[in-house]
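Task 17 of the worksheet. Students: predict the tertiary structure of the chain below and write it out as structure tokens. Keep your answer in the requested format; marks are given for formatting as well as content.
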Amino acid sequence: MLAGSVALNPAIRADDAQPPPKETAPAPKKLTGAELYAIHCTRCHLERSPAEFDPAQWLTLLTHMRVRANLPAQPAREILKYLQDNAGR
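Model answer:
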């Protein structure tokens, strides 16, 4: 029996019998709005310049495209912020 041999064998300490701690995976890198835009929006069409539309137009376009592309809320917010921050005026 392993438990008995650990206790009787002075060369093996009790903490040696414990499994090593599990390593946790590093947290995934948070993608920027520009990166998300490039990933999601170029799946179906060429990337448009953020300066091509004004902030209100980007809101309308992204609302429509979010439904068409089945884009989750958080990436959509990041993309919209990127587009509106760099929009034409």
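Marker's comment: The mean pLDDT is 85. The chain has one domain: 22-85.
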